[in-house]
Write a structure and sequence with these properties.
Number of domains: 1
Number of helices: 10
CATH class: Alpha Beta
CATH architecture: 3-Layer(aba) Sandwich
Order of helices and strands: EEEHEHEEEHEHEHEHHEEEHHH
Strand order of the largest sheet: 5-4-1-8-9-10-11-12-13
CATH topology: UDP-N-acetylmuramoyl-L-alanine:D-glutamate ligase
Largest sheet: 9 strands, mixed
Distance between the termini: 20 Å
Radius of gyration: 18 Å
Strand content: 15-25%
């Protein structure tokens, strides 16, 4: 069983500040840090750090950032055979401002990510086998994402979809998704219902199941997550940690979940491992630089008394 991640690769330019500036205001920040990121690459690297068989499909530019993004994937045991280089194109870039309380504000320049066509990722999807996991997000064109989901579903893969940043999704695509993972804001946008009560969160999940999703997983920050697969629904508690930077927490959650799926753990344990990975990640600065190893997740899970036998 292998995991194929189809998505974006960005170079993150990160600066820490006491607080975000107001309109027209200039403030001083920390030294600028250059950290490999992008939702697709973050999730691929996070899974690679958990010793899973993972490969990445996407596009980088023919610039210095592109070379470093490729090298970083390889350093983290992510296959790069399906990552292409676009000529005369800048790699994707994200400008990230992180406040002292760990909250972040992100501006993305898509670069090469905005040019990912179905033909760029087709060969990766063609190598997917029944039972493999295909993981996708929304930092590349919707048309490419939707065709990849359709084709992966037809091949019998387990489709895991993290539709961020949120865009409209046809119900026919949702019906091809095995695990839809959204945060509170994204879920509100999809369902039109606020995520302000447990009752509403349950209603949101039921709407998503009615649209064809096999299992809806709604992440709730430090409160944990909620899942509903039609036959089982449950709130899974989160973990109290001191947040340094929330960048990459959602990507780490997805990696922990996929790790659990690969190990064929129960859905509740898979979601708990996602929360463990996210909790560790927010205690560190940066996206990929903050992602935990398999040993760290196992140690944290043991301390949290999560039985993985």
């Amino acid at each position: 069983m292998k995991i194929t991640v189809i998505g974006s690769l960005n170079m993150d330019l990160v600066v820490r500040v006491e607080r975000a500036p107001k309109g027209g205001e200039t403030i001083s920040g920390s030294e600028l840090r250059q950290i490999c990121g992008g939702k697709g690459a973050n999730q691929a690297v996070a899974i690679g750090k958990l010793n899973c068989d993972v490969r990445m499909a996407g596009v980088v530019g023919d610039d210095a950032f592109g070379k470093e993004l490729m090298a970083n994937l390889e350093r983290n045991h992510v296959g790069t055979d399906f990552v292409h280089t676009a000529e005369n194109t800048a790699s994707g870039t994200a400008m990230i401002v992180v406040e002292e309380n760990g909250e972040n504000r992100i501006i993305i320049s898509p670069g090469a990510n905005g040019k990912v066509r179905w033909s760029d990722v087709r060969s990766a999807v063609e190598e997917i086998e029944a039972g493999d996991i295909c993981l996708l997000q929304f930092e590349i064109p919707s048309k490419t994402v939707f065709e990849s989901i359709r084709q992966a579903n037809e091949k019998g893969a387990t489709v895991v979809f993290n539709p961020a940043p949120m865009k409209p999704i046809p119900d026919e695509i949702l019906a091809c998704v095995n695990y839809l993972i959204t945060n509170e804001t994204e879920t509100e946008m999809l369902t039109g219902i606020p995520s302000d009560t447990e009752e509403n969160i349950r209603r949101q999940s039921e709407i998503l199941l009615a649209k064809g999703v096999s299992c809806a997983i709604i992440t709730l920050g430090d409160k944990g997550a909620f899942y509903n697969n039609g036959s089982e629904s449950r709130f899974v508690p989160g973990f109290e940690v001191t947040a340094v930077d929330t960048t990459g927490a959602g990507d780490a959650f997805i990696a922990g979940l996929c790790y659990g799926l690969m190990k064929q753990f129960s859905l509740e344990k898979c979601v708990s491992l996602g929360s463990v990975a996210g909790a560790i990640t927010v205690t560190r600065l940066g996206a990929q630089s903050s992602l935990p190893s398999e040993q760290e997740i196992m140690f944290f899970a043991k301390q949290a008394i999560i039985c993985l036998d």
